[in-house]
Amino acid sequence: MIVEIESRSNARVKEFIKERDESHCLEGEKLVREVLARRVRLEKLIVRADWQANLRLGEVNAGEIWVVNAAVLAKLSRLKEPAPLIAVLGTDAAGGRLDWRREKIVIALDAVQDPANAGAIFRCASAFGVNAVALCGNSVATTNPKFLRAAQTAFLDVRWQEFADAAKFLRQAEKHGFHVYLTSSHPGGARATFAEVRFPCAILFGNEGGGLAGELFVRYPALAIPHQQRIESLNVAASACIIMYEISRQLQP
């Protein structure tokens, strides 16, 4: 259904603003075009009126298509300079639960709060064929606009699930026969090399500042990335990308 909206006080506009923070909204011409090319189901596509001719609206898989003027778009957008396209993902496109029977590698983030780091981890997961990410505790919300800008279309490539805390995630991982590995710059307890990782595996990354709880290192082996000691630790996104690359290589024939 195509709806033309010319007033910033339109009821649909007000409702959208109210619900925006709970929605997966993707903004930007390039990003939204890539989403449209994948033909994923959208809840809404918002198009600036002078951009209609650039799209085949009849072919868009969306519940609603809003055609709006620049003033309305400025109210709907989170950006200082609104892009001509906004896509709101439908619930079937935005995430879902992990499929433990299919996963070989699950990357778990425990209280990773920086949206740029979390988004970069999703992009690296997509790049290296890691199809599952768990968000534990008070990790960044996937509806965070900075996270979505960092993750880009990788958000559509990766299955993800939120867990109340790392303990609940670990219980599920062990229940399904996953081998659990921790990450730390200075791990105590047992260590494991990349070559020693057994599949299916779950790899847990901690908060940018505090890392993982110390008691976990009594239960699970830790992976470490060798680096010069003058650097205390690596950024969590950089660490996750290196480890995903190394671990995914183990699955290659």
The overall pLDDT, averaged over residues, is: 91
- Compressed to H and E, one letter per element, the order equals EHEHEEHEEHEHHEHEEEHEH
- What is the rounded Rg? 21 Å
**Tally of domains:** 2
The CATH architecture of the largest domain: 3-Layer(aba) Sandwich
CATH superfamily of the largest domain: SPOUT methyltransferase, trefoil knot domain
Q: Might you state the CATH topology name of the largest domain? A: Alpha/beta knot
- Read across the widest sheet, the strand sequence of neighbours is 8-7-6-11-9-12-10
Strand fraction equals: 15-25%
Helices, by number, come to 9
Notable characteristics:
253 residues; alpha/beta; 60s Ribosomal Protein L30, Chain: A; Alpha/beta knot; 5-stranded mixed β-sheet; 12 strands; 31% helix
